[in-house]
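Bumping with the actual sequence this time:
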Amino acid sequence: MDKDLGMRPKPKFGISDDAEDEMLNYQELFNRSNMQPSAQVIREPKVKRQQSNENDDKKRKSPNVDLTETTVMRPVIIERDVSTTPIQMPIPVKDSFPEAKHRGNEDDLDKITLPNVKKASLFAKQMYRDGKLKTCKELKETKIASTNQHIPRSSLITGTGLGEVIGERDIQRIHDENTERLKSMDENEILAEKDKLLNTLDPKLIAFIRKRSKKEGDEIIRINEKITAEKMDVDNQTEKTALPIEIDSRWVHMNNIEHEKLEWMKDLPKPSIQRTIDETNAEGVPARFDFKGNLMSRTADIPVTAALHHHGEEPEAAGYTLDELFHLSRSTVLQQRVIALQTLSNIIRQAHTGIYDHDLQLPLIPKLIEAGILFLIRWAMDEQIESVYMVAIECLANLIAPRKDEEILSQTNHWPCGYYEPLLTPPDIDLGEKKSESDLTDIEILEQDLIKCLFRMNVLKRLVYLFDRMKLLSPLTITIPVKHSFHILIRMARHSMTCANQIFEERQLMDFIIREFIPEISVPTEEGHVYEHLLPEALKFCRVLASHGSTLAFNLIDRYELNKRLRNHLVTAVNLSSSLQDNQTLPELLSLWRVFILQGHMANEFGSLMPTVILPLCQLCIRQMPNMIISQILVQLITLFDALIIHVTKFISKHRNSSEDLSNIVNWSHIDGLFDMILSIGKQTMIETDEQIDIDALRTVCLSCLASFLTGQQLLMINLLDLPIKVKQIRDQFFEPILRLKSIKRLIENVKFETAISSTNSTTNLPALTQRNISPFGFLTALLRLTNIIYQIDKSLAVTKKFISQLMLTKNSEIVVYIKNMLNKLTSTRTRKTPWFEQFEHIFLFQFIQVIKQEKFENDLPSVYYEILLSLLPSLLKGYHYLAQEIFKFVFFDVSYWKRSNESELADLSLITHETLCLASNESLTISSSHRTLLYERAIEHLPSLYTYYKNILHINHSSIDLNICDIHFGNLFQTDDLFKLNIHYSYTLIDVTWPYGLLSSLYTNVLTIKEDDKRLEVILNALRFVYILEMKHSLILSKMLTKTTRFSMIAGIYLLGSDIFLEKNIADYLVAFLNCFNEQHLLQKLETRSTIQSLMTFFDFYRSLVDQYEACSFGDILYSNYLLVPLQQTYDIQLRKEVWIEHSTILKYIRLKPDQLLFSLETFFIPYENDLEMIRYYAQVLLTGTIQNTIQPLLYMIAVHHLNAFLFDQTRSEQFSIQQTIIKNLQIVSTNEKKLYESIINYKTFSRDGPVMFTTLPSIRMNWLQKLLQ
């Protein structure tokens, strides 16, 4: 404790804790240590002057006063007691004055020099000449010698209470007596006296004295070591020492050499791993980084010229630790602050790429956020120095907006369903005891939501100021900071719709952005100039804002007239066709326009530009191919055509029967001419070229747009006779040639390596997407989209050509390997989070299975395809309602698959002796394998109605138009207007993992109440039918999706839904069948009773409700009793058995099961033996009191007798002998009236389904033990 109090508080990682909290912690530590303070304040009471005078008189009369008793100032000065001080008489002299001293001849003094003294006085030289001056060395030796001869006084005698003078005198007197006494004794006498003292004194007192003496001894040793070290230093000064530099005599102030300061000038030792994982450093070795954020090796020999060595704890190790960078970031030296922030920015950027994942023990980004890096950055942004706030902006952008995330989002934007933007919203803020978010501190908000903390810090207003300030600086220095500022705004806008609206309502910021970065008039681009020029980052920022809904998109267009601004810039780009290859803003402009059209705005403006601007632009791009910028423009143009086709199809479908005048609105005639344009661009992608162009992206958008064109024409039934001709054109000119490309086969081969992964640097308060590289699923999904619509237009091609089977299902197909791996991934954990980019794999899998189903025609699909579709459902992100609907339709309507011979064998019914079971309602249930098969077939017949039921209860029927064609890309966009959004949460799933059980969980938690008995019965039966189909057909999938406890509890919970619902024969049939299924899978012995039921409550709370319901309205039902007894098996928690046997003992009289009526294993109720003494006593009590009788509760009776008998004849534990005697004597007393009970307990041998098995003659070992108990 003393050691802790002596330590100086050190700052923690990054930023030190609050000073006040730290001092309070040390004050509490000091109070617990019971140490006396070094000084204290004594307040003397106020008294009257008369009393004060009396006290003064008393003090004057006091002969001895201990001045050490208090530290307060005395009002009266008390003279020192000099009564014992010896008086010396003055020595008589001859002269009146002392004799004058003479220095002698001063001429000789100039020649005298003193050693180690640069300039000595005349007096010192004379004393040195006369031999009266001692050197420092001699003085220290004299002092050391006197120290060594000095015998210290006893530290046990302090003289406290004796006064200052008298106490000191008495202490010295006692010390002198002890010294004389020891000198008069020889060694043997001293040892004898020592032994005598040790035997008479208290051992605790001896231990205390030794501990105190040890401390003083250590202190003396330290003093001696210090003196010795000083002596060695003095000696070394006189010897010639090897110095790190050669001293020049002309140097000033170098005559005294300070060796400790010259240590830094020596060569550094060779780097080595000195700090390793041990007891004092369990967290490992601190990582060191260079200025570019690269991890430094501790053993690498880095030259000092790299400027990576510094005066830290490990001067030989190159690089900076995070602690050191945090410290430097608050330095008063400008260059240090800038370098530290720049290095931290580079480290964060590298961390988001995953480069440190295998080298560091913990993810770096969460640790930096926890250390408070956000506050460092925000403080730096408040500085007025350009270099500081610019690097702070870069650091913040790298922290919250990983560059890789935005790059891959841009690359997937043109994929099928790539129009969705991620909502990176953390879980709702937990207010705790606070009433609102405004009551929370910045740190409390930061711990839960970093972006909201930025809003709290007024980052928006600061960015407005910095935007305006940077406008005055050199254009070459501000381009990157301005772009980083937009990266920050884009990430903040991705947080939620609330944050997007908050940004939009920051009028000063929005006005500045639109005015400076999306100007009304297009100005020719100048290198390095960003203000008053069209900036791609500003367009992307508006696109992210517009994706939050039609209302925000409309307000953005209306307030700033974005339709005019975008049209002006688009027309200017076409007019300046010579600079088209350098126009990097046009792709982002077209992408923004696409979002506006998908939100239902600016479609007419685009349609009016089609003949004069858009088509000429396409032709210009085709002529200037191949070129990277041109290919990007074409990709966004075709993606914009795709959005226009969907908008027109949706609009015409909704207003087909309307009487409105639609002549001025864009219609199918505006886009009918796009078919040839898209097909010609697609043919251009077949040409091999060495130019750097995004060829895969061009092929993807051409395939997807052609699929959308055919889908829209078929849905609108426009010129249906022309469809087969267009399909033939697509096949001959684009589709079949692309299937023969070698690059396509390479994409398919790499599929199994390109699955989406979760970000390691994503935190709860700052979600991230981080995907390592772009995957091939965009192209493959577009290819499957087009294949699917071709097969639906010309159904014969699916059977005759089988394009996809021949391409992807070859021998040793990589797609099959990928599907199996994906199935394992989807079912690997029951609480997995869906990575954002996995959504494209979901679409690919469904489209692939759908196409293969058409190509198989009469042949059956492998079971693995259905398994993966069922596993997909809990992983679908919110927004994919149409995909979920199509999966349900695919699964539920394929009755032929469900009618195939069941792959799992029927339950082993050998344990069941009765083929019928009588309910409390006196109805008989048939228990046989044929009856289970009959239940399965009846459930299959209800599959079409189950599809409608599940579609409604899961709320996945959001389409505003009844689509007769399955296309996920189309279907997602056909939601009703009030539900349509272009952004979905990055991880929230659409369907709960317990979806097979329908509304049962809502009924259990009283979230949903159904008063009508018929409706409640139908809801329960629908869930039981579908779950029973899955248990019979795909129990393995259910076991991977749900815990065993959840599967059992969801079925057993039927008894909680009404007092008589379980008596319905249809429901009871399924309850018996489920119990048999669970018994077959050995599930009833593997429940996790201490876990939580998924989407419900803890199992113990659930079981308590089940027991209460049984006590209230079970009527002793045999089937209910079976479900109730499952958790009472010996392998489960003792608290569950106590809940029934002790807490609810009244229900024991209703559990009248016979051993042969138990529908699962009997052995688990008897093995292992009960070892809880409370349960043993209660078994004896219920037997002795007659609560349980063999004729009424035969199963419970046999259980109690079995465990009581095992306890009584247990000879291995001597500590329970007295309890055994008490129980056996009580049994003997009762045996006078209940002799049969005594005999059944004593003579019990084992259990069976026919009842207890008894000994005819008790074995001798048991007989001897029984006699011993009865003594």
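The tokens above came from a reply further down the thread. Residues 286-396 form one domain.
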